[in-house]
Design brief:
By secondary structure, the chain is an all-alpha fold. It has one domain: F1FO ATP Synthase. It contains three helices and no strands. Helix 1 packs antiparallel against helix 3 (47-76) and helix 2 runs antiparallel to helix 3 (47-76). The longest helix is centred in the C-terminal third of the chain and has 30 residues, at 47-76. It is rod-shaped. The chain starts with a helix and ends with a helix.
Length: 77
Amino acid sequence: MNTINLINEFKMLGAGVATTALSGVGIGIGVIFNGLLRSMAVNPGATDKLFNYALLGFALTEAIALFTLVIAFIILF
């Protein structure tokens, strides 16, 4: 087997393994908005403050997804 082909195959495998963190990001976003909806149902008066905290949590969680994709692209190229 050609060494260059083997390296390219391992690059593809590494990029695929690196993107498994995206499943955790999806679960995290679901947990954040689940908590937001439950908190809004219990205390409707604090909706604005809760929404701001949820957006902050969403942004930080989404940043992890972007870092994951950057790492995957670095592995590929």
